[in-house]
Amino acid sequence: MATVTDAAEVAMNGDGAVPQASEAPPGVAAAAEGETFPPDVVFRVEDLNCYYGPNLAVRDVTMDISEREITAIIGPSGCGKTTVLRCFNRMNDLIEGARATGTLLFRGVDLYDPRVDPVEVRRRVGMVFQKPNPFPKSVFDNVAYGPRIAGSVPKSELPDVVEASLRRAALFDEVKDRLKDSAIGLSGGQQQRLCIARAIATSPDVLLMDEPCSALDPISTAHIEELMHNLKEEYTIIIVTHNMQQAARISDRTAFFTADVDAESNSRYGLLVEFDDTEKIFSNPSDERTENYVTGRFG
Amino acid sequence: MTDTALRLGGRRSAPAVALLREVPVSAIVALSGLVLLATSAFLPWAVNVATGQAANAFERDLPWLVGGTDLAQQTAGSFGNGWILVGIVAVASVAGYPLFSGRRMVALPLAGIGAAGSLYVYFTSYRFENQFSKIEGLVVDIGSGWWLALVGSLLVTGGGMLAQIGAGKARAVALTSGPVTLDALSGNRDRRDREAAVRKVMLAAALASILVSGLIILALVRDALTFMINIEWASVWTTGWFPRRGFYDIKTLVVSTGLVVGVSTLIATPVGLGAAVYLSEYAKPRTRRWMKPTLEVLAGIPSVVFGFFALQWISPNIIQHIDVWFGQDAGLGNLAAAGVGVGILSVPLMASISEDAMKAVPNSLREASAGLGSRKVSTTLRIVLPAAVSGLVAAFIVTTSRAVGETMVVFIAGGGGDTAVYTHNVFDGSLTMTAAMASLASGTDSVVGEGLTFESLYFVGLLLFVLTLGMNLVADRIVRRFQNKY
Amino acid sequence: MRLGRVFDDRTRRVVTSEVYRRSRDVRGGLFRVLLQIALLVALLVLAILLVDTVTDGWSILDGRLGDFLAGGLRSQSGDPELGVFQGIRGSLWIAVFVIVLAFPLGIGAAIYLEEYAPKSRLTSFIDLNIRNLAGVPSVVYGLLGLAIFVRGLKDLTGGQSVTAAGITLAVLVLPIVIITSAEAIRAVPQSLREAGYGAGATKWEVIRTQVLPYAAPGILTGTLLSLSRAIGEAAPLILVGAVTGFLGGQSGLVDVSQLQERFTALPIVITEWVQESGRDRGFAPAAAAAIVVMLVVVLLLNSAAILLRNHFEKKR
Known about the structure:
The structure holds three protein chains of three kinds. Chain A is 34% helix and 24% strand. Chain A contains twelve helices and ten strands. Chain A has a ten-stranded mixed sheet. In chain A, helix 6 (158-168) packs across helix 8. The two termini of chain A are 33 Å apart. Chain B is an all-alpha fold. Chain B folds into three domains: 2-187, Butyryl-CoA Dehydrogenase, subunit A, domain 3 (Up-down Bundle), CATH 1.20.140; 191-224; 231-482, MetI-like (MetI-like fold). A three-stranded antiparallel sheet of chain B has the order 2-1-3. In chain B, helix 12 (250-282) crosses helix 15 (335-359).
């Protein structure tokens, strides 16, 4: 796999180990100084293309993710929603042959700059996955995992961090008596909230959620949606969802992706059709394809 | 160590310590490897010089380096004086590799030089060791120094990398979510160094397997070549295998091997295949649950035990009764008994690979056949077995290859002594290729004999190696193909 | 009946007899019996082997097991000090070498192949190489040991010593350790790795904290199997020069100085006694008893491995 390590090595052995403004692209340098980069924008995506090997997976994505909002990414299967989401914390680096071109700025810093360590990015941009995937360890160890490996929290303060994270994930009261029990014994909804607590524990700025409710029952889903609503006071959330009602209920802004077929190579790729306030997307979309999708005529 | 590292990584470290942290750990590692090399190879000699025990220590102890003594002059033409130098360059290259890792333009040629030097030293070291032993009063044995230095520097390099792994963990202190800047996002350098070091350690472990293969081939080829160059080829086609007397009749060994493998195939194929078909197609889950572990127990029994069993039970109770049917009179040790022993030993292998092959046949095929009204026999014989045939062939080849390479059963129960006369009768005792090797090596304290006895061992070994490798490669290719099919 | 209305009686009789023909399926029954015989032969042989060995060795196992375990190699089977102590000691040292050398190297290589290796020619070469190494006859490893560890590294190993034998067997089981560990690592669900990366762990941290703990039972199974293989292996030891005759020096079980001395091992002791039994029948029971001692160790290791694997397979 072309991996974290590879990237790290590139970063380490690059010609200049010391970051210098003159080496960075002009736009990034200007942004890094904070002159042109608006403070309420967390991610700025410009002309982002994602590839798996030679195949173009997603084409020309341009959007701004705003601070303390929930941005939903919707669209039919195979339109590259998850691929785009996984660019935000460079999870795609883990797939051999995956690469991205274009610009992806995180608070003005180019995420794909060779000096950026994807591991550090993932600490600041937490992720919750489609299927709840708690570690086969105790509830406590699950939440303490991130702070422990990063060494960011002294051992004596770990219980506080774990408790705070579990409280924020609205799980503490349910599990406070069985922190030492295996997380595998929790219900599906609890497991997913545990995963959210685990993501929060590394004190990230952003939470990425990849269809977090698709494996859950309606009641657990409602729990998580409510939780997301509360979490957005502190975190910027980007969520991929299949469920249009969910997007309409919880998100402030919505990006609609669809799949298209390249006429020349006959290969499928995803593209961003429309990105706007959720209300507008669902009530008065400006693109016909969006309208067809949200009204259930395809997808 | 962890404590020290923690202190190093503490909030404010002394300037000297901070400077130390800037030096890459791999540089320290490589340097210490070189120091170790220097000391282990030259310290004894240096002590000699320092204590004045030898007036002309240079010329006496390192004749090749300075071209001093008569012997060095004698050998100068044939080997070149560079053996020691090449050895040093080789070790230094190996030890210095981590220093330049990541800079391929430097590291790769360096590793190349090291490898070439090591090969050269390896191929010539025996002859040099002989020369060394002829110099009276020689204190330093450069030969031992070289190996010690190599192993030592590798250990130090590995240890240093491991230390780096530990340090990386301990030093990862206080990361807080400050403002997002490029600096903040470039993470923790120690952590990255640790990742790179871990990766290298794991890669080295993986490369060890290639080293093993390389060493096997080197070991086999070097002495087998000597055998092939110096042998009178007429002695390879005589009436028997009498290595200590200079008769190396290969066909004796090959034919006996063939006989043993033939008998073993007669046992292993029907029994193994039948067991596999039963387990895969007929057995209920409950039966499988205790049947498979039982077969695995059979697979786990060491081959010496089958040797004992073949000699003490199979031979007197079976072979020595049926030999009269063929008008033969078998001794206690004979090829047939050994073949049966090898066959039994191969049953679990045959069974497990065949079962895997049949398991790989998709159930839809069985259901389609059953849906057409076929019985289980027809489905098994006409659908499953043909669909799995390539896998079954692979199982057969692997089992045969294993039988060819099996040593202990044949050595114990094959009825061959140190020597064997050519025979194509299974009820005679003889030596197979493997048994010949074992009997050459055992008996006396070490492998000795006239002329090329020792090298003949390697010649037979090379033959065996090539034979089994060929079979395994073919089987491997077949298995890969049937894995891709479904 | 609906059938009756559509088909006439004759058709119905044919159909019924076809449907119930099972009882007349002689060919199928015969085939099944043949298969069962095949399996039975395998199991029967195992039973005979075990029973025969135990009865052969019973006189010693029952009479003087303690002395037998403490005794050494002797030239006469009647010698009351005849026993397997030196063999056990040699096998123990070999096990130590396998654990120290083959386990870390093998697990490391497996980690590299499953977690780090890019899809490259080097990787597929290493892969092919390991699979082929696993098929190399053990006696060839003996040649390797003789050439490299006994003669080449004489100054390090002391020649025909237990060190040379231990390294040889460690090399012999290395491919087995790699292959079984790699399988165990491959079985770790990808979601677990992603969870680790998502929480900001580096690759090594994910491996150390998630992959290895999850794969541990599988890896342990493989290592136990390879350990039992190493303990039972005899052919390479003969080539590396295990002592078959008399071996002096009854030093303690753990004495580092013996690392560079001549040695023997359980399977070698057995081989020697089986061969001696032609000359002196008294060695046959001794060999059988030694086999029982070795089988106890080997089969314990094996069944531990099998039970462990089945236990965790069921759990998942």
